[in-house]
Amino acid sequence: MKSKFLALCAATAALMVGATAAQSATLDTVKARGKLICGVSLSTPGFAAADDKGRMQGFDADICRSIAAAVLGDGEKVDFVLTNINTRFQALQSGEIDVLSRQTTATFSRETSLGIDFGPTVFYDGQGLLVPKSLGVASAKELTDAAICTLPGTTTSQNLTDFFRSIGGKFELVVFESPDENRAAFYSGRCEAISSDRSDLASIRAVANNPDDYVLLPETISKEPLAPAVRQNDSNWRDIVSWSVYMLMAAEEKGITQANVDEMTKSEDPEIQRMLGGADELGKMLGLDNKWGYNVIKSVGNYAEVFDRNLGEKTKLGMTRGPNTQWNAGGLLYAPPVR
Amino acid sequence: MSETQVLPAAANSVARPVRRSKWRAAYFGTPGNALVTLVCGALILLLAKLALGWLFVNAVFDGGADACKQSSGACWPFLTDKLRYMLFGFYPFEEQWRPLVALCLFLGACGVSMIPRVWGRGLVVAWLVVILPVLYVLMAGGIFGLTAVPTSKWGGLPLSFMLSFVGLAFALPLGIGLALARASHLPAIRLLGVGFIELVRGVPLISILFMAAVMLPLFMPDGVTIDKLLRAQVAIILFAAAYIAEIVRGGLQDVPPGQFEAGRALGLHYWQVMFKIVLPQALKKVIPALVGLFIAFFQDTTLVTIIGLLDFLDTVRTALRDPDWQGIAVLEGYVFAAAVYFLFSALMGAYSRFLERHFNTSYR
């Protein structure tokens, strides 16, 4: 009886180890499935939201598409799984999704304690403050005893507390459970300011009845580098995610766009040759097709195209590139050389 | 012959003033009644005028978001543009006839099943063997040339109906079993019943969904995932079963013990007594409470949004957040959702009243 039980335990353990070994190669799983499963947010316009036809649109969604294009050659081979703030990491840990691309801030404790690894930062965000122009305030330091609307949880209120302590000021926190109530309260004058990530504030301002009545204060009171995340200990898969993102940035730097990528394959520039699979065999080193870089750009375009299509000044959100410009234009985007 | 013609006329001429005076007494009998009638009448007219003005007179029927922004009335273009998304969520656009057919089939089958004459074992078998599999194949595809659609893309109204109605259909027998277990004389079975019911009722639905969505996958071996929708569905079934069990137990306690004893004295087996004597009486008594629970569950499935599934109310909400429409059509979206929920809840309520009349169990 006892030996039977032990044998059963051993068999179960062996099965689990076997399953773990099989699990560790996310690339094989994705290739066998023929689809990338990507976790995105429920509904954040500009980052991930459904259009009228139920197609997922947005910056985060296009990051998913670029990875799918690199691995499977087609940016449409993605299944989007909706995750929210509470379930996003678990969905990744349990293997329900292959990559999490959901406006997630890379932080020390998340990277070290959650069993996940972050890819490169795709969007440099930071917490800011939006006020009505009529308040006559030009800097967050002039806000004294202001009522500030925020959403609960996360780090928003902590950042505000830290900021106002550092300048020796006081404020009153007004917390709303839903984003819609939060905005309505701000528009109706319930609070003097509303605080959130600057990307979010841009959309709050964009949908106001008269956007020119509101100003975004210059202070950025926190760093929020948003990055895609993968499961820990799958180095190859992390490389693939990282380099799919770097490919977008490098393509912008080299002037390769969705429209001219076919012409660019004839370019004499050795780096472009390597990126688009004309020279060397970089794809093989990742376990991918040699045309992976070409597929990424053909599917979603370069970083600038992805940004402009989803967040840029021609969209309703009307965001400026801010720190999300190339390093040689004074921004923070800096893809390592492709060689 | 002349008499037969005179009589109805005479009856009419007598009946009409009586009815009218009754009406007058009810609404204008005293100065107080007259005042209440006038005030209520004026209020109803005012509300009707506001509603009609909003819905039709000031409404925008074509144009885009900008036209809606200018107008104070309802924004119909929002509904027409977003209707398919609100009804079917992320289901592939070209394939949306499938959830539509499934929805119609489901509602039709429900309508037929409501007729007392078709009740019977055959109906249960038809649901289990024909209707549910057909609905599943329509939604999931993968065979008969239908493209496969993963459950992560299901959403909107079909998801609401599936989670609530399928959940309740499976929870009902489970709940009845639990109620019987709780009333059992066998200590082990009673303990199991009480333990399950109290455990499940002791935590909110949201935490059970959370357990199913967040904790369960962490206990599974790596690489093994159970479909998220299935997990939510099972969680809802277990949760609903505990509440149904308590309602049914109330009905069981209302059946005099003499009924049970008489059945046993006649030599019937425990199950025969339960199914033929006790349960029919008990269930009739708890119809209003059960329907109340059903309506509540139909609306509660919206909680699945916390585990990343979008039911009907959630697709409406996310449609409202589209940057093109944000802040413009909030009222329209919620009024539409309210109208749909009201329609189905009212139908369930009406059916409950019909059932009570059918079984003649109203408490007079």
What does this protein structure show overall?
Chain A: Pfam families: SBP_bac_3 (PF00497). The complex is a heterodimer of chains A (339) and B (364). Chain A is of the alpha/beta class. Chain A has 14 helices and 14 strands. Chain A has helices at 2-24, 26-33, 59-72, 88-93, 108-113, 156-166, 179-187, 198-206, 235-254, 261-264, 270-275, 282-286, 292-300, 303-310; strands spanning 36-41, 49-50, 56-57, 78-83, 99-100, 116-118, 123-125, 127-132, 146-150, 171-175, 193-197, 214-216, 224-226, 229-231. In chain A, strand 2 and strand 3 (56-57) form a beta hairpin. In chain A, helix 3 packs antiparallel against helix 13. The longest helix of chain A is centred in the N-terminal third of the chain and has 23 residues, at 2-24. With 364 residues, chain B is mainly alpha-helical. Chain B has three domains: 2-57; 92-148; 161-359, MetI-like fold (Orthogonal Bundle). In chain B, helix 4 (76-88) crosses helix 14, helix 7 crosses helix 10 (228-254) and helix 11 (257-265) packs antiparallel against helix 12. Chain B is globular and about 75 Å long. In chain B, 31% of the residues are buried. Classes of the chains: A alpha/beta (339), B mainly alpha (364). The interface between A and B is large, with 44 and 44 residues.
